[in-house]
Specification:
Elements lengths: L1 H19 L20 E5 L5 E4 L2 E2 L7 E5 L7 E7 L6 E6 L7 E4 L11 H17 L19 E5 L4 E4 L2 E2 L6 E4 L5 E3 L4 E9 L3 E7 L4 E11 L6 E2 L4 E5 L10 E7 L2 E3 L10 E2 L3
Parallel strand pairs: 7-9, 8-20
Antiparallel strand pairs: 1-4, 2-3, 2-5, 5-6, 8-11, 9-10, 11-18, 12-17, 13-14, 13-16, 14-15, 15-17, 15-18, 18-19
Bound molecules: zinc ion.
Length: about 280
């Protein structure tokens, strides 16, 4: 009986004290700083019931509070994250996005424009671009990305994220992946666990595999010589997915490795453990 009386008496005592406490949302979400940069990837966990939105876009929260987002190569200096506690009101957290220096190569006095592909090739390019755009909208529930990423192959870094060529004053599309120089036939490994979204021959990237790691996070493996997996198959982290090559529009054998969060290409080197890539050419 004493217990019950105490319990009944509690609200009157506790409520004013609670009201005086700062709102839970006032405490800013502690974000891994390394991801807050152009090309950066941010993954973490929030306590149960917290909702997140980046620039007004609701983020999927995993069963253990997992979330992920990223910033493109040309992202501006700020982003707005809204954090909503259970039953509470959203608080806005302004994120400072570090600006990075990109490797820009200016080449002048080159022979004229590239050859325009024939109409049937143009149709193929457009069709494939639309298919890839649709795949990148995949927002699957299992947060495989939360376990981190590993190198899909070991070799010299022959091309970095963000680099760009300006030919005769005309900027070309920036390079939005990581090139690892490996001989044709080198076994490639899944950078994280996930599900195969695509495994087929594409015009630009040749034999290509795309893995879905949940919440819009995907990795892409281009210019392969052999595809070992089919769409819908599940892979474990580090599992072989096929072999490297020089298929598609390339000048030599290498793996082009891409990391994306929905439509945004991110810098794979920022999520990979240091060491496995040799050099930084
Ligand atoms: Zn590349």
């Amino acid at each position: 009986m004493i217990r019950r009386r105490t319990a009944l008496a509690l609200p009157a005592l506790v409520l004013p004290a609670l009201a005086a406490l700062p709102r839970p949302a006032a405490a800013a979400l502690d974000l891994p700083r390394a991801g807050l940069a152009q090309g950066g990837f941010v993954a973490g966990r929030v306590p149960p019931g917290i909702a997140l939105a980046l620039e007004g876009r609701a983020l999927r929260i995993g069963p253990r509070g997992e979330y992920a987002f990223g910033f493109g190569r040309d992202h501006g200096p700020q982003a707005m994250l809204s954090v909503t506690p259970p039953g509470g009101r959203p608080s806005r957290q302004r994120l400072a996005i570090a600006r990075r220096q990109w490797n820009i190569q200016r080449l002048e006095g080159l022979p004229g424009a590239m050859v325009t592909p024939p109409p049937e090739t143009m149709e193929r390019i457009v069709r494939e671009r639309e298919k890839l755009a649709a795949l990148r909208r995949t927002d699957s529930a299992t947060p495989h990305f939360a376990a981190g990423f590993r190198w899909p192959a070991t070799g010299r870094i022959s091309g970095v994220y963000g680099s760009q060529r300006i030919l005769n004053g005309e900027p070309r599309a920036p390079h939005l992946g990581l090139d690892i120089a490996v001989p044709t036939g080198t076994m490639l490994h899944a950078a994280a666990a996930g599900e195969v979204l695509l495994a087929e021959d594409l015009y630009f990237t040749g034999l290509t595999t795309i893995l879905d790691h949940g919440h819009g996070v995907q990795t892409l493996y281009a210019h392969m010589s052999q595809l070992d997996l089919a769409p819908g198959q599940r892979v474990a982290a580090g599992e072989p997915i096929g072999r490297s090559g020089a298929t598609g529009r390339v000048t030599g054998p290498h793996l082009h490795f891409g990391l994306s969060w929905f439509a945004t290409w991110l810098d794979p080197q920022r999520v990979l453990p240091p060491g496995a890539g040799k050099g930084a050419g």
